[in-house]
């Protein structure tokens, strides 16, 4: 890898290769060497991958900022932009799919942090027309969410998704990260028949406030996550989420209280409070929101403490379904990441292997056990 | 100050004076130089003060560990101890009162972090028989809580306390920190007629579980903080708090959401969850606790966001009452600590000066303002 050259191609905001490359980590993937940026640095996104042998770059997906109030959040963020688009934000597993080698190489699914997930890669090859797409667009990356109840990472239920499916929410240049404009991207996806997030419309930024409010009400009632608003060229984007999502994420975090950062918890509460103020919640509505928030926090944590007390397993529960080889590769991958996996069942259904497992939450289990045994907290 | 000598007198767990003294800060108090330890280090408590001119040491008050479950928390913590005492823990301002100079010097009130608070010092001289006590016990320190609605630091209401009062919860050797045994300390306080925290009894550690449970139920119903359980010799101690205190502290933290550490919030929720599990809360009782928790979190934060939106002041509101000179000294002291004070009223009542003021919560005010103006959050 030519560092000077890579630095320039990445458009990093430093002239000193070492400034950037000290944050890269080397991983071996299918006989090739991947250099992976483990944190956003010098204008280059976290999860950016450079493949040693081909010198191909797969740029990380940018972090999407969030507004806490729609008005003036949207008009202010998109000042000077003629037109914005509103699409659903899905609660799934964000992977970039790209052909990162030379000719004849196969597409790989890269996680947000730049790992190649063998399970998601296998599912993507099965479910998406990757050969046809990359034959025409070899230097593009498909930015997708893997959604549904049967994935090794998330479990959000979506109506009509029984196992797992892909939704393509962005198509970008693999190396520069430049997005295909939103309307073109939606046509392109339609052309290849791939799933996309729901479309809520296109308008001036100030008119988008009302559209987003209505969309959020509808999504909230259905227990869905929220929206992403983008400039029509796809360059700028901002997200906004539903009350039910805030509460669901709190419930998740407090079900494994010692695995998650304190900031995770705090930020969801902050979102909910600003939403309550902007929505002009009545006293009754505010009380209802507060009570639901409290139940989302306390019930899952109490339930987990009881599980530890009763000797039941504690952790994220997942079900995966796929080819036996891909399932084996997944467990090797999880093992490489030092996760402790407790397999609860392993069976065949219609030629697929179906495994239910728990990612054991060792911190939560051990800390709770310690306190239940009378351990003290120094504060 | 002779560092080698001080190191030995403090019983520090290092032989190298610089290891400890690099964490000391120098402050000038009434013409004397105080060296103050700003964080617990090498077995020496935070807030420990060495007075330059007299070489007197005022040892910091030790941090009190907490159990999250009473059973087996108490028997386990006090294993090998014959007898423990149970006293109320009060929600006030913890100050140590000591004569830290030589002969003829006056008693000073030291905060937890080793500052001398001029207001608390003046109130202590007014309300406590300090001259008589220190004439007999010049090397002791009175460990007290300043409680009541009219203090510059806390505002917890206690029945029968209209303005502010002192409660002595410990008497220790000023230099070694060795406590007077609990029963002797209570007799001593009674002898001098100074207020003390409520006494709930003395028993074997395992029998204390039930006593504490009953005490906590009673204190919770009265909206009071909790208990401290100590070995009879006063050497070991542990605390446990009520649901109403957890929720009150969350309400306080979320009323100033960007002033407080995320850990503050998290730890109160953890306490509540373990208490719910140990109490064997029924589904209804658990739901009630969860809803109350949610209301404690969301309502104060929404209220503060609305205040910022409406241009109302945001911060802790306090009322102080005392001699005009002491009030002036208090505001100078708060000013020295870089606090922004917004005086809301300033009047005389029965020869005392009464000032209502807000400690302006600049972080919360500014962050909330930024988000309300449409500022984004990068997550």
From TrEMBL, chains A, B:
Residues 252-375 form the RNA ligase Pab1020 C-terminal domain. It comes from the Archaea. It holds the Pfam family Lig_C. Keywords: Ligase. GO terms for molecular function: ligase activity. Residues 83-241 form the RNA ligase domain. This is RNA ligase.
């Amino acid at each position: 890898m030519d560092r000077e050259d890579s630095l320039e191609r990445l458009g990093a905001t430093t002239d000193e290769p070492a400034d950037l490359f000290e944050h890269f980590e080397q991983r071996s993937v299918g006989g090739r060497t991947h250099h992976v940026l483990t944190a956003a640095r010098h204008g280059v996104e976290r999860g950016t991958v450079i493949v040693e042998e081909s010198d191909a770059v797969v740029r990380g997906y940018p972090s999407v900022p969030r507004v806490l109030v729609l008005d003036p959040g949207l008009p202010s963020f998109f000042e000077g932009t003629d037109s914005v688009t509103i699409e659903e934000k899905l609660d799934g597993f964000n992977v970039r799919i790209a052909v990162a080698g030379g000719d004849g190489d196969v597409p790989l699914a890269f996680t947000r942090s730049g790992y190649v997930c063998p399970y998601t890669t296998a599912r993507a090859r099965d479910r998406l027309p990757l050969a046809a797409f990359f034959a025409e667009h070899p230097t593009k990356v498909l930015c997708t969410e893997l959604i549904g109840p049967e994935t090794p990472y998330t479990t959000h239920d979506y109506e009509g998704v029984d196992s797992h499916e892909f939704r393509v929410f962005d198509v970008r240049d693999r190396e520069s990260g430049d997005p295909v404009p939103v309307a073109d991207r939606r046509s392109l996806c339609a052309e290849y028949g791939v799933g996309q997030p729901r479309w809520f419309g296109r308008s001036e930024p100030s008119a988008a406030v009302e559209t987003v409010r209505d969309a959020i009400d509808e999504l909230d009632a259905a227990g869905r996550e929220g929206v992403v608003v983008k400039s029509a060229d796809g360059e700028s984007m901002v997200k906004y989420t539903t009350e039910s999502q805030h509460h669901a994420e709190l419930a998740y975090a407090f079900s494994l209280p010692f695995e998650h950062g304190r900031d995770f918890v705090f930020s969801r509460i902050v979102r909910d409070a600003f939403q309550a103020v902007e929505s002009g919640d009545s006293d009754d509505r505010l009380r209802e929101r507060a009570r639901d928030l409290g139940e989302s926090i306390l019930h899952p944590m109490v339930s987990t403490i009881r599980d530890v007390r009763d000797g039941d397993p504690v952790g994220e529960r997942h079900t995966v379904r796929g080819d036996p080889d891909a399932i084996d590769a997944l467990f090797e991958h999880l093992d490489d990441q030092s996760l402790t996996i407790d397999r609860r069942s392993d069976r065949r259904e219609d030629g697929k292997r179906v495994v239910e497992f728990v990612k054991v939450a060792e911190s939560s289990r051990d800390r709770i056990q310690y306190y239940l045994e009378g351990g003290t907290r120094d504060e």
